[in-house]
TrEMBL record:
<protein>
    <submittedName>
        <fullName>Uncharacterized protein</fullName>
    </submittedName>
</protein>
Length: 126
């Protein structure tokens, strides 16, 4: 378990940002944050000091290879403790469109079932 927690603050313009906080006040080690996609390191990860001690801003650029059809996950880890602090998932392309169409179709079928049951209930009790 890491002495740090990482909380997402925003994700826009191809840049994931989070706030890294040291949980143990006595621990003075500098964080070593790494991000990876498909077990390959992501270059350009930055760690910036804030005005408060024990807090840093983490920025992880979205790798171009993560953009495409399907689902991609980026892991952000504490390299010293070898534990995952955060992750984010990207879903895009045709796979997403098919999933949404299937989900909408299922919702329509369930709504039709509920409408029939409600109409039957109204006929039987009215």
């Amino acid at each position: 378990m890491s002495v740090f927690t990482l909380t997402k603050t925003r994700f826009r313009d191809g840049l994931w940002e989070g706030l890294l906080v040291r949980q143990q006040q006595g621990a003075e080690q500098m964080p070593e944050i790494v991000a990876s996609f498909e077990d390959r390191p992501i270059h350009g990860v930055t760690l910036t000091d804030t005005a408060e001690p024990g807090r840093w801003v983490v920025e992880v650029p979205v790798p171009v290879k993560a953009l495409g059809d399907g689902v991609s996950t980026v892991l952000i880890r504490d390299a010293r403790e070898e534990c995952v602090l955060a992750s984010f998932t990207l879903v895009a392309g045709e796979a997403l469109a098919e999933d949404i169409r299937a989900e909408v179709s299922l919702l329509r079928a369930e709504l039709d079932l509920l409408k029939r049951a409600f109409r039957k209930h109204c006929r039987d009790t009215g």
